[in-house]
Amino acid sequence: MILWPLIAACSQQPVPESMTRETVQPARVNFTGSWEMDHTRSEDAYQELKELVRKISRASQGSASGDSRSRNMSVGLSSATVETLVALARLAEQITRPQVLEIEHHGREIEVKRRDDFAFTCDFYDRIPEFVETPFGTELCGWDGHQLIFHVSLPDGLTVQHRMTVAPDRQQMHVATTVSSTAAPVPFTLNRFYQRFEPLPSEYDCEYTLSKKKTCTTRRSGF
Amino acid sequence: MEGKAAALAFLLLSGAHHLALATDLPDPPPNEREVAQLNVTLVVFDPGIRENEAPDRQSGVFPEIRKIEARYLPYLLRKTLVETDEWGAVRVVPETEPAAELLVSGMIAKSDGVSLELRLRAVDSTGREWLNQPYAGTAANLEDKDETGTGTVEPFQYLYDRIAADLYAARARLDEGELSKIVEVSLLRYANELAPEAFGEYLATGPDGSLEISRLPARGDPMIQRVERIREFEYLFTDTMDEQYEALFREIASTYDLWRRYRRQLARYMLAEEQRMQNGDSRGSRGSYGTMKQNYENYRWTKIQEQKLQKWATGFNNEVAPTVMELEGRVVELKGGLEARYDEWRGILTSIYLLETGE
């Protein structure tokens, strides 16, 4: 809680004020399960970028016409700004590429395993958002109401935030990934939706050891 | 050693031997060691982790591995001390023993394969502190193989050598009288623990807090002879337990070396990556896709390595857990037997003392 303003100071991205005050894990929210991306509902980065550029252009045009009728109506969006927005969108698309998430949520710990990428982990010890410094970024995770937030501040004013929400019936999950940069006028958010699925039961018991690596044995049937 | 263990097992498990304690225990072997060759007792190290392990995990500590290191590292020190041939028996014990001639305890402040920091304290039976300081260093740049290419080389051996040299230097500052006193006080403290009513008045605390001998038992005092026999018996027990720890040492040595090698490789790679970043290699302008991607990829790479390390830690634990569990079971079994016998011995010694003094 105390550390949060430090992150907020380094980040352009708005962070929920509630996360700084109370980060008690909601008792009923549980993300545990296997989740597969629902492409029919998930946003497409290119479409969202087009929409964002259009909105900014409109806003700047309106603002320009209000200020001075003689001003060129397209000055609000420089090529550098467009380039930065494209960069944010490309990065958001890359970050949200994992199609399958395996989540283990037990007590005060949560691990979001993302296929072919690193996992998000969070330990909600003592109701304090977990603050971790790595050589290349500063992480913070915690609760904002019933939503779980993973936030990372990277060099050059780049921040990435994942806001996860699970539906009350626990069959669907929404992850809003927001990428922002101090070089961009607005952040870029990409919404992805996931559907719960039941993985096939494994026929093997596997164990990983340092010298033998992964070794598996056939699981004995219960008969 | 097998014969010793069998004898110990017989003595521990026998229900009838205790009544004949004063006469049936083996006589202590003649003390042929030089007075300077004090017995050294190394207590299993404090792993240096907090009850709530979350902050330690965040700072790259793997609590389960640290707990194993707490048992493993004292053995490296023991091995070093034994090889100097400057000391009497060097034993690793699970708990502190105040009556030890020279007691060495320690805490692992840092151990990540690249760096090691131990905080060590050595104190003799009189309470004199021999050393109390940190020993820190980075892994020697070894190819992880010895000259013959057949075994592993301890990358922090120079730290253990330094500790051994400091202990030697501390001992060299004491004269023969002081060293003899350490041995005598050690025995009297041990005797006092067993039969305080008989030995309570032999020791006194001096003005500097150290233990002084108020008076010595008479030559041939049967009570002190009994205590010496019990102590020899305890040494037998400790050596049996020591064998268990030594087995652990041998079994996990190669796995532990592998773990530390991985960690060192990872650390070297990360250092190179950080330097590359600091040099600003292939950086584009702020806000460009190239810069953003590089910043994110660096972070992503760190996370992947960190999680790989976690996987290795799990692999390490999976590999050594059966050995550790077996060891813990045997130590608990042996300790339980010994503690029960101590209670009996204390009672017998008190009875004998009361009989002999006519009280």
Structural class of chain B: alpha/beta
Which structural class matches the secondary elements of chain A?
alpha+beta
Global geometry of chain B? elongated
Counted up, domains of chain A total: 1
Reading the helices and strands of chain A in chain order gives HHEHHEEEEEEEEEEE
Please give the alpha-carbon distance between the first and last residues of chain B.
42 Å
Number of strands of chain A: 12
Q: What is the CATH class designation of chain A?
A: Mainly Beta
Helix content of chain A: 10-25%
**Per CATH, which architecture of chain A?**
Beta Barrel
Into which percentage range does the β-strand content of chain B fall? 5-15%
Overview of the structural elements:
The complex is a heterodimer of chains A (223) and B (359). With 223 residues, chain A is of the alpha+beta class. Helix content of chain A is 23%, strand content 38%. Chain A has a single domain, classed as Beta Barrel (Lipocalin), CATH 2.40.128.20. In chain A, a hairpin with a 3-residue loop joins strand 7 and strand 8. The N terminus of chain A is likely disordered. In chain B, the strands form two sheets. Chain B has a five-stranded mixed sheet. Chain B has a two-stranded antiparallel ribbon with strand order 6-7. Chain B is an alpha/beta fold and 359 residues long. Chains A and B meet through helix 4, strand 5 and strand 11 of A and helix 3, helix 8 and helix 9 of B.
